[in-house]
Amino acid sequence: MSRRSNLVNRIAEMAGPGAVSVRDSRDGWPGLVDVQLGTAVLRVALHVGPIGLSHRNRDTVERRFQNPAGGKPVTDLGGSLPVLLGLWEEGTRPVFAVLDARPRLGRTTRQSLFIPLWQLEEAARTGWAEHHNANGELVLAFHPVLLPSYLEILRADAYIPAEQISAAVDAAGLNTPVDESLEQRARRAATHLVRNAAFSRRVLSAYNGLCALCGLNFGLVQGAHIYPAHALGSPDTTANGIALCGNHHAAFDRHLIWIDPGTRRVVLHPELHARRAVSIGSAQFVDSTFSTLAEPNLREDRPRSEMFVRRYGLHPDKYNWGN
Fold this sequence. Notes:
Elements: H1 3-14, E1 20-24, E2 31-37, E3 40-50, E4 52-53, E5 62-66, E6 81-88, E7 95-100, E8 112-116, H2 117-126, E9 128-132, E10 138-142, H3 147-156, H4 162-171, H5 182-206, E11 221-225, E12 241-245, H6 246-253, E13 257-259, E14 266-268, H7 270-274, H8 280-288, H9 305-314
Parallel strand pairs: 3-6
Antiparallel strand pairs: 1-2, 2-3, 4-5, 5-8, 6-7, 7-10, 9-10, 11-12, 13-14
């Protein structure tokens, strides 16, 4: 049995009891597995491998997942869902890094997938992290037990911001010590909700309930963290918050809005401008967005430039279009 076929079996075990069953580990490129998704079973062609050093003078900031030598193509084994999955085990706990392999079906070229080290470390700490690689492909890294959740998202062709999943994972207790009781987990989850509500109330008060990017009120505005709440050392202060309506909050979370840390100039992602003509609503969203962030009257309530800098530093690959 090859190293990769052994890895298929290890991955199934790490995903948790009853989550993944191995039909045929083959040579691991791919191995055929069944994944339990609620009441349905999804057949997956797992193309697996270890995640190791990148070996291109970037080992301090980068890791690599690579397919086998010999021109072995990505395949769906006759209709199963193909997935590239690497296992990283250098950190505090194991992490899976995955990529939807469907666009790569049939390719026989050597396919190195380079993954930033910060993403793997963030996934080990928070349970879920994302970035787009140089080809624009979404690479996700997460706790092994979340493999079925990832496949559910992939099958549904859905997108959930990493911040939301990390918050849910944290509230569920996946990031807590194993000896924490159910009562302690429940209290921590409730405390998390109270924390967010209190933060949002303070931010909304500072902005008089108005969206800082379009001026909407009607009680449809939320307090949004600039440096994400799940990030280590993120403060729940108005200096790390802006008031945003639901639409601008969603666009901000999806890294489609860039705000200059110094001048507070607002830049929308080129994709939003390109799709402006799709509908009246799309045009109104683009046209109604302020060119400069509206800020509170009190200086102490205004966002700190450092919070924007830290946000962009956390996800450098998502803001290379903004400045």
